[in-house]
């Protein structure tokens, strides 16, 4: 088919109304790529004309028990499309987790055990429901159809894609030429993720930019099975608190959605003034024109801290409550003035007659994980006892009650008793 004929075939067969254009604008917000956009417009127009919702899929492997704000970038987009009236499908990859996603990896990812997958999956949907509307969300597990494939079905599925095409994938290509091992089972991952789209008959699949190859696999396999091919939408990867690496628990630059309100608020306030606007685009539910006006005000002289407070309060309220967001703001203001929060952990320790060393105290109260970390914080001036900075590693505290602080957000009120 010639290019003009192909374009004509993909042209919308239903009118592109103002509502369709509004839905397209919602879809485009913050996205990296929407492919092919003309097919998505045609799907939106058909849905608008027929009243039949589109099926929109997001798959997440439960590789860890908790979800952080980086994960919610795609969940937010799913919620926006859900609010347009479409059927969203939250797919838990309990089968694919047993393979291990090789995306972006330069080594084979160790597969999880079934027990690990089950334990992690138990919390995933509960946390995702803080973003999605549970009453309008279809939750599925890909073991439903992947287990049923069996060896014969797996071989037949594998016959629908070539090794040459698989090796075009960047991480496989780079590992092969670097002489780094690639296990055969890793080739199965994109095939199984693509087969999920066949099983669910999805119209659109969402993912991070690192998932593009896998999302395109879904289009290919749907065509192989005689289905209308899904469109794909990729979202940017959100940088963590360091402003450099993508948000990750392993890099300790993350904000977990189940974290305490005060910790969540404080972490969001630590985001740089520049990165804050990306957080607004990808995490906030405020209209883009409102965000644009706020950014213009800050560029015109308004304190960026005001905008950051608005973002932090919105996120804390979403995952906790408005009251928690207000309390977190007050806690943050109190800390910024050098005050001590009203609600801090308490501990009681027994000590020798000559007192307890500051390093041991920090470790025993859980303010630091090790004595070496205690010494590092002391050397950097990051430790306070009763409001005064302490840098002396040899300091010993006697009997009594003390408020000990490490960094900006860790406090403990400790009572020391001579034993």
Describe the overall structure:
This protein has helices at 3-10, 18-28, 37-50, 72-83, 114-128, 143-158, 163-166, 170-177, 184-200, 212-224, 261-269, 275-283, 288-299, 304-319, 322-336, 358-364, 371-379; strands spanning 33-35, 55-60, 87-92, 137-141, 204-208, 231-235, 346-351, 356-357, 383-385, 388-389, 396-397, 400-406, 410-418. The protein has 419 residues and is an alpha/beta fold. The protein has three domains: 3-235, HUPs (Rossmann fold, 3-Layer(aba) Sandwich); 261-336, Tyrosyl-Transfer RNA Synthetase (Orthogonal Bundle); 346-418, RNA-binding S4 domain (Structural Genomics Hypothetical 15.5 Kd Protein In mrcA-pckA Intergenic Region, Chain A, Roll), CATH 3.10.290. The strands form three sheets. The chain has a six-stranded mixed β-sheet with strand order 1-6-5-2-3-4, with helices on both faces. Strands 7-13-12-9-10 form a five-stranded mixed β-sheet, covered by helices on one side. Helix 16 crosses helix 17. The N and C termini lie far apart (88 Å). The mean pLDDT is 87. It is found in: Cytoplasm. Its EC number is 6.1.1.1. A motif ('HIGH' region) lies at residues 62-71.
How would you concisely characterize the structure shown here?
It is an enzyme of class 6 (ligase). By secondary structure, this protein is α/β, with parallel strands linked by helices.
Structural topology:
Layout: H1 3-10, H2 18-28, E1 33-35, H3 37-50, E2 55-60, H4 72-83, E3 87-92, H5 114-128, E4 137-141, H6 143-158, H7 163-166, H8 170-177, H9 184-200, E5 204-208, H10 212-224, E6 231-235, H11 261-269, H12 275-283, H13 288-299, H14 304-319, H15 322-336, E7 346-351, E8 356-357, H16 358-364, H17 371-379, E9 383-385, E10 388-389, E11 396-397, E12 400-406, E13 410-418
Parallel strand pairs: 2-3, 2-5, 3-4, 5-6, 7-13
Antiparallel strand pairs: 1-6, 8-11, 9-10, 9-12, 12-13
Helix pairs in contact: 2-3, 6-9, 9-10, 11-14, 11-15, 14-15, 16-17
């Amino acid at each position: 088919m010639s290019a003009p004929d192909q374009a004509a075939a993909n042209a919308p067969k239903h009118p592109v109304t103002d509502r369709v254009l509004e839905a397209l604008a919602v879809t485009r917000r913050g996205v990296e790529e929407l492919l092919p956009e003309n097919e998505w417009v045609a799907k939106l127009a058909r849905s608008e004309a027929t009243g039949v919702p589109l099926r929109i899929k997001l798959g997440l492997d439960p590789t860890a028990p908790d979800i952080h704000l980086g994960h919610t970038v795609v969940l937010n987009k799913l919620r926006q499309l859900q609010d347009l009236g479409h059927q969203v499908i939250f797919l838990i990859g309990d089968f694919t987790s047993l393979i291990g996603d090789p995306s972006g990896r330069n080594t084979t990812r160790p597969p999880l055990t079934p027990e690990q997958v089950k334990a992690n999956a138990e919390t995933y949907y509960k946390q995702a429901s803080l973003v999605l509307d549970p009453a309008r969300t279809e939750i599925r597990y890909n073991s439903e159809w992947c287990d049923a494939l069996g060896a014969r079905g797996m071989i037949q599925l594998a016959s629908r894609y070539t090794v040459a095409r698989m090796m075009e994938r960047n991480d496989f290509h780079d590992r092969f030429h670097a002489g780094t091992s690639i296990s055969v089972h890793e080739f199965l991952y994109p095939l199984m993720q693509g087969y999920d789209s066949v099983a669910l008959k999805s119209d659109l699949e969402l993912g991070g930019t690192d998932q593009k190859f896998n999302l395109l696999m879904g289009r290919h396999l749907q065509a192989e099975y005689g289905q209308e091919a899904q469109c794909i939408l990729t979202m940017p990867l959100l940088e963590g608190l360091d402003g450099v690496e993508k948000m990750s628990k392993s890099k300790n630059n993350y904000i977990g959605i189940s974290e305490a309100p005060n910790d969540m608020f404080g972490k969001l306030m630590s985001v740089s003034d520049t990165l804050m606007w990306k957080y607004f685009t990808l995490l906030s539910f405020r209209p883009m024109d409102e965000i644009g006006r706020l950014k213009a005000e800050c560029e015109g002289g308004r304190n960026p801290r005001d905008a950051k407070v608005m973002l932090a309060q919105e996120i804390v309220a979403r995952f906790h409550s408005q009251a928690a967001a207000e309390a977190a703001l007050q806690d943050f203001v109190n800390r910024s003035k050098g005050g001590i929060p009203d609600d801090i952990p308490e501990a009681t320790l027994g000590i020798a007659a000559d007192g307890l060393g500051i390093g041991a105290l920090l470790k025993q109260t859980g303010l630091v994980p090790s004595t070496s970390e205690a010494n590092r914080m002391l050397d950097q001036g990051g430790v306070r006892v009763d409001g005064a900075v302490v840098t002396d590693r040899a300091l010993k505290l006697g009997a009594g009650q003390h408020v000990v602080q490490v960094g900006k957000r860790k406090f403990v009120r400790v009572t020391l008793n001579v034993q």
